[in-house]
Amino acid sequence: MVDFALTPAQQDIVDQARAIARRCLAPRAAEHDRTAEFPADNFTDLAGSGLLGLLIPESHGGLGADLVAYGLAVAELAEACGSTALIFAMHCGATRLLSASPGQTARDALKDVIRNGKLVAWGFSEPGTGGNVLKPQLRATRTEHGFTLAGTKAFCTGAGHTDYYLVNTASGEAEFRRSQSMFLLPADTVGLTVKETWDAMGMRANCANTVQLDCAVEPSACVGGHGGGLPLLGHALPALVLGLAAASLGIARAAGGFATEHVTRRVHADTGANLAAYQGVRFHIAELTTRLHTAHLSLLHGAATAETDPLEALPAMNLAKYICNSAAIAVADLAMQVTGGQGFLRSNGLERHYRDARAGAVMGANLDVLRDMIGKAALGLDPRS
Ligand SMILES: Cc1cc2nc3c(=O)[nH]c(=O)nc-3n(C[C@H](O)[C@H](O)[C@H](O)COP(=O)(O)OP(=O)(O)OC[C@H]3O[C@@H](n4cnc5c(N)ncnc54)[C@H](O)[C@@H]3O)c2cc1C
Q1: Among protein residues, the one whose CA lies closest to atom 8 of ligand 1
Q2: Which helix (H) or strand (E) covers residue 341, if one does?
Q3: Domain limits of the chain?
Q4: CA atoms within 13 A on the CB side of 9
Q5: What is the mean pLDDT of the segment spanning 259-277?
Q6: How far from 160 is each of 83, 145, 195, 204, CA to CA, in Å?
Q7: Going by CATH, does the domain composed of 122-226 fall within 1.10.10.10?
């Protein structure tokens, strides 16, 4: 049986995210987009509400939300400010990974998040291997005192503004399950430098900068131990995939909401009727409504499946990301059509959603990789092959 009703705990989290999104994030979004500055004020507010600990278990002092509440909360934030929602989702993915990591380093960082509102960046993409998180070229070499790290992480959301960096390296172990190691580095680690490369068409306040690493770290920086990264990645992946899906859903909702409101309000002087009186416009609204509905259901399904059915989780999450990322682009495009010249004006916000909508499609797993995995799953082939 499918139950779409939220529990009181889930609803509380969604309500809290919606309240902050509307009161704090939405009024600032245009300015953050214009200046492309990191939305530090938004994260002060999110920290104050406890939402930075959304995916940290209650036993570690967090809110211990499930993936359904998390996904819907990210969508609420994205409806107001895509950049903030994306930074938030990457942070939550990183904290979920740390929550599954044994050892004091991860526990201390989580405490820092909860008590001091600290932020964690997720640096997995690289210039050489793009979004293929399983093939990092960042090298970790064992030394007498720990490890040296040498390499570059590309497009690291929030880089230059977060307090910690979670990065993955190939461990060099032959066995696939032992092939990755995770390192948690405080922002002031000697040899960690951020190059401000982010000047983007959309998600402009996201600050997905380049991180260069040439550092020596203690053994304790390797959370999960050498070769122990892959199970941690498996645990964190749902927060990333669903977070990116949810960010797209929120952007799509913002674009669709603007369009629906506009076609009702805009009246042609010659006919005295609004745009909604044209059947062609209603067809566009029907199309975007269908896209929004499908995207919402796919997110709920992906999140609920990730919570309950480990075997079916990956195909369900891949579908959710594919449907939501595609919907954001399609809905923003339809909204542009029915809002005419008004939609084109920078003062109206729709063009920001139109630009932001493109991000999810290229973020890992990008739409082409997803199409491949969805096809393999439909044919009964191993989607990871
Ligand atoms: C707004 C934003 C925020 C980001 N934040 C983060 C972050 O916080 N952390 C992080 O680690 N990364 C982040 N990324 C990086 C992102 O997840 C991708 O890794 C990155 O965009 C890939 O860029 P690239 O130019 O290397 O793509 P390439 O790997 O060169 O791919 C370009 C295109 O080629 C095609 N392609 C590539 N591989 C395949 C394949 N296997 N099969 C079929 N087609 C393929 C796709 O069409 C793809 O879009 C972010 C990116 C953006 C845009």
Answers
A1: 157
A2: helix 340-344
A3: 8-119, 122-226, 230-378
A4: 9
A5: 98
A6: 15, 27, 8, 14
A7: no
Question: Quick check: 14 pLDDT over 80?
Answer: yes
Task: Give the span between the Cα atoms of 81 and 374, in whole angstroms.
Answer: 29
Q: Give the pTM.
A: 0.97
Domain spanning 230-378: which superfamily? Butyryl-CoA Dehydrogenase, subunit A, domain 3 (1.20.140.10)
Residues 160-176 as b/e (b if ≥16 CB within 10 A, e otherwise) read: bbbbbbbbbbbbeeeee
Q: What is the pLDDT of residues 54-71, one digit of tens each?
A: 999 999 999 999 999 999
**Residues near 288 by beta carbon (within 8 Å), at least 6 away in sequence:** 252, 255, 256, 259, 330, 331, 334, 335
Q: In whole angstroms, what is the distance from residue 314 CA to residue 376 CA? A: 12
Contact 117, 52 (CB under 8 A): yes
Nearest to 140 by CA among 228, 216, 195: 216
Q: Which residues are near ligand 1 (CB < 6 Å)?
A: 90, 122-125, 130-131, 155-157, 203, 206, 208, 359, 362-364, 366, 368-369, 372
Q: What residues contact residue 64 under an 8 Å CB cut-off, 6+ apart?
A: 56, 57, 58
Q: Which of 115, 167, 134, 22 is nearest to 365 (CA)?
A: 134
Q: Which residue has the tokens 């059915």?
A: 309
Q: β-strands 164-170, 180-186: how paired?
A: antiparallel
CA 202–ligand 1 middle distance (angstroms): 15
Angle between helices 310-338 and 279-308 in degrees, nearest 10: 160
Q: Which two tokens stand for residue 282?
A: 């209603």
In degrees rounded to 5, what are phi and psi of residue 211?
A: -115, 120
- Which of 206, 366, 367 for mutating ligand 1's site (highest number of atoms within 8 Å of CB)? 366
According to DSSP, the β-strands at 164-170 and 209-217 are: unpaired
CATH architecture, domain 8-119:
Orthogonal Bundle (1.10)
Q: Which two tokens stand for residue 7?
A: 């529990």
